[in-house]
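Q: I have 174 residues here and want to know how they pack in 3D. Can you give me a structure?
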Amino acid sequence: MTTERDPIREAHSQWVRHGWSDAADGMAMVTSVARVQQLLTERIDAVLRPLDLSFARYEVLRLLSFVQSGSMPMTRLGSLLQVHPTSVTSAVDRLVRQGYVERLRREHDRRVVLASLTDAGREVVERATDGLNQHVFAQPGIPDEDVLRLTELLGRVRAAAGDHVAAPPTASHR
């Protein structure tokens, strides 16, 4: 009978055995976060792949849908998504080809390029959000109180890296 072993716990033991005890806990934490990111990405992709969306493109659509006008300057999108301008351009290019977004110029300043949500984009982002809420966000894999605590702890990591991090969220009413 083969006993399954936790590879991250095994790596932790190896770190300690090799004299890296001061880094072993951090290695295990970072490796655990990376593995959980893989697992969550698989769940997200299972929802978005049938809609021919990546999570990056979904985020662009969702941000645009939150704005009353449905339009936002490309530079603002990049800032809110915390990604490089070329990443935003790439995502918007694909969304334009899919018919979910169009590029517009501001009337009063033609230099500003806006990404603007189309009706098809609004429809697909609502379908994607329904799926993500049902299959990923509402059931992330740990109890609600742990979700809040983990979000707070990850916020500390983000803040230490220079992100602006707001106060932790309060429990939603479920």
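Q: Anything worth noting?
A: Residues 1-51 form one domain. The mean pLDDT is 92.
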